[in-house]
Amino acid sequence: MESENTTNDSFKGTRNVEHHEQIRADRACIGCGFNLFGQPVVKEEHYNLAITRCPECGEVAAIQSYPTMSHWVNRFRVILGAGWVVSLLVAFAINSLIIMGLSFGSIDIASEKLSEEIGFAHSRWVEAQSLAAIEEQKRVKDSMNPVESDPVVINPEPDTTVEDPEVATIDPVLQNVVSGSVSTTINGITTTVTTESDGSTTTSTSINGVQTGSLMGGSYRWTTISNNWIENELGPMIEEKGGLWANVNREFLIMLIPISIVSTIAGIFWSVALLGSRRRVAIILPIVVSCIALVLVVSTSMDNSMMSYASEVARDHLVYVIGPLMVTSAAIFGLLGVFIGRSVARFVVLVSLPPRSRVSLSILWTRDGLELPKPKYK
Amino acid sequence: MPKSHICPTCLVELARIRAVPDPHYGLPVVVCPGCNAACVRTKHPDREFWRQYLRTNIAIRLVIGKFAMTLIMGLILWGFVVWAEDIFVDFRGNLHLVESFTALDINTALGSWGIVLFSFIMGYSIRIMYAHHRFWVPLVILVSVGAFFGTIDYSTSKLVELIALVGNFETTTDNITVNALLIRGKLLMLILIPILLGFLAVRVLSGSMRKSQSNKFRRVLKKQRKRRAYEK
Fold it and tell me: Which distant-in-sequence residues (6+ apart) come within 8 Å of A125 by Cβ?
C-alpha cells in the first residue's frame, strides 16, 4: 500500500511540473504500444527525470532510455551461425556427390569400348571352354561305351530334362548330360547345349547359376565375367588389344564441359560463402571436395562380388585412370571459381542493387581490403 | 519518421538532428541545439541486430531475384527470337516483316503482334528492375544474356568439336550454320525496338507517377494544415 501511495504521489507530482517540450518522433508506449507522438515531456519532481504519460493507458514512460541487456540476441546469433554451418556442410556433401556422379558418368562412357572387348573375349573363351568340355565328354562316353556309336542321346522332346545317371557318375566336373540338352560345368561356368527338334542347337551359359546375357541388345557389356577369366586372361587380353588407354572411349572428354561448369559455379559459391577465410584458405576447399569425390568413386568401384559384368570389370580398370583425371579437372575449375568468385559476386551486387542497398553486403569489399564503390550520379 | 530522442537536460526532441561520430570514441553524439549538452544516441542491440539481419536478407534476396529474373528474361528473349524465326523467316532465310504483321492467317498475325507486345512489356520490366542504372546498362545486360542463350547451341557444338579434335575421336553435333546465326542476330536487333520502346515508356510513366505522388503528398500536407488550424 505504501508503494502504491508513493506511485500515486509521483503521478500527482507530474501534473504540477511546467510543460517543456513535446515528443516529435515515434515512441511507443511500453504499456499499450500507443504512439506517444505529440505528448508533452515533463520533468518529474522526485528525481528530475524526463517523463511522459501515455494518454491511452496512463503509463508513465521514462524518456531517457538505456539499452536493455538481452540474451536473445546472442542466442539468435548462435542459432543463425549453427544453421549456416550446417547448410555449408550440406553444400559440401552435395558438391562432393555431384563431382563424384559426373566422374562416375565419365568413367562409364570411357569404359564402353573396353567392356565390349572384355565381354566379347570372355564369350569366345567360354565357347572354347564349352566345346572342349563337350569333346571331353564325348571322349569319356566313347571310352565307356565303345560299342554304341552315339553316346549322347538326343531327346526328341527338346524342353524335357532327364538326367542321365551314367554320365553324372563319370566325372564330378562334367555334369548333367541330359537328353536333348547337355550341361557341362568348368571353372564355375555352366554351358548348356540344347538340340531342337529340327536338329539345330542353341548354347546358353550361366555362371554359378546366373544366366549370362552374352548379347544383350547386341552388346557384350552385360556379359557376366568369371573371376577365373579375370585372373588369368584379362591382363593379357588388354595388352593384346593395345593397352588400357587404347581401349578408352574418348567421348568421355565431353564430360569435361559439365564438370567445368559445375565446378566453377561451386568455386564461386565457396568463395562467397567462406567470407570469413582468406582466399588462400578458401582454395583448399575445392581440393578437399575433389579428393573426397575421388575416394567415393574408387570405393564405389571396389566390388568384391563373385561375378561382375563386363562393364563393371572395365570400370574397375579405368577408375584409376579416368577418375583422377576428371577429379583433377574439377579441382582446377573449382580453384578458378574460387579465384574469380568474389569479383563476380561484387559485379553482380553492383549491377543488381542500388547504392543504398549495397551497404549491407559491403563485406564483399571490406573483406578483401577494398572500399565500397561510391555511387556515380546520373 | 525517426525514433524519438529527447535531450535529457532540456527535453528538446533531437530525433531530426543527425548523430555525428565523435572524434574521441566514435560514438554517435548529438549536440542539443537548446542547451548545447552532448548526448549519445544509443541504439538497442536487439533492434539493431534484427534490422541488420533483415537488411542483409533483403539485399541477398534482391541480388538472387534480380539475377534469376535477368536469366529468365534472357531466356524469354531467346524464345522470342526462335518464335520470330518461325514467323518472320521463310525456309530460304528471307525476312517477311510486313507480310507477317498483315497476314490473313490469324496465327501469324497474332504471333507477330504478340512478339511486339511481350517485348515491350519485357523492356518495361527490365528497365524498372535496373532503374538505378543508366539507360544503356539494362540494354547491354539484356542483349548479352539473350545473345548468350541464342548462341549457346552453336558455341557448345563448336566446343564439342574442339574437344573431339584434341581428344582424337569422332562425334556428331548439330551443325548450325553461320547464316542461321546471322538471321538470329537480325531478329534480335528487330526485337530490341519494342524493348527500347518499353524503356522509353518507363521514363515517361515514371515521371508522371512521381508527379502524381508529389501532388498527393502536397494534398495530404494541406489537409493536415487545415485540420490543425481548425483545431486551434
Answer: A229, A233
**In contact, A158 and A195? CB cutoff 8 Å:** yes
* Cβ <8 Å between A25 and B67: no
Contacts of A70 in chain B (CB under 8 A): 45-46
Q: Are A331 and A257 in contact (CB under 8 A)?
A: no
User: Residue B63 and residue A352: Cβ atoms within 8 Å?
Assistant: yes
| Cβ(A188)–Cβ(A181) below 8 Å | no
B130/A351 CB distance under 8 A: yes
> Looking at CA atoms only, how far is residue A348 from chain B in angstroms?
7
Chain A positions touching B56 (Cβ under 8 A) are 360-361
Q: Which residues of B touch A47 (CB under 8 A)?
A: none
Q: At A3, which amino acid appears? A: S
Domain boundaries, chain A: 13-62, 76-111+248-366, 125-240
Q: How far apart are CA A20 and CA A22, in angstroms?
A: 7
The pLDDT-based confidence of A270 (bands split at 50, 70, 90) is very high
**In A, which residues are within 8 Å of B164 by CB distance?**
253-254
The closest of A154, A155, A182 to A167, measured between CA atoms, is A182
pLDDT tens sequence across A304-327: 666 678 888 888 888 888 999 999
* Interface contact B6-A349, CB threshold 8 A: no
ipTM of the prediction: 0.74
Of the pLDDT bands very low, low, confident and very high (cuts 50, 70, 90), residue B118 is very high
B66–A352 C-beta distance less than 8 A: yes
Q: What is the pLDDT of residue B202?
A: 87
Q: Which of A231, A227, A158 is nearest to A189 (CA)?
A: A227
Residues from chain B contacting residue A63 (CB–CB below 8 Å): 4, 6, 8, 11
Tell me how many residue pairs between chain A and chain B have CB atoms under 8 A apart.
118
Instruction: Compare all CA atoms of chain A with the CA of B131 and give the residue at the minimum distance.
Output: A354
The residue-averaged pLDDT of A207-226 equals 63
pLDDT per residue over A79-119, tens digit each? 999 999 999 999 999 999 999 999 999 998 998 888 888 88
Q: In chain A, which residue's Cα lies nearest the Cα of B161? A: A254
- Residue A254 to residue B62, Cβ atoms within 8 A: no
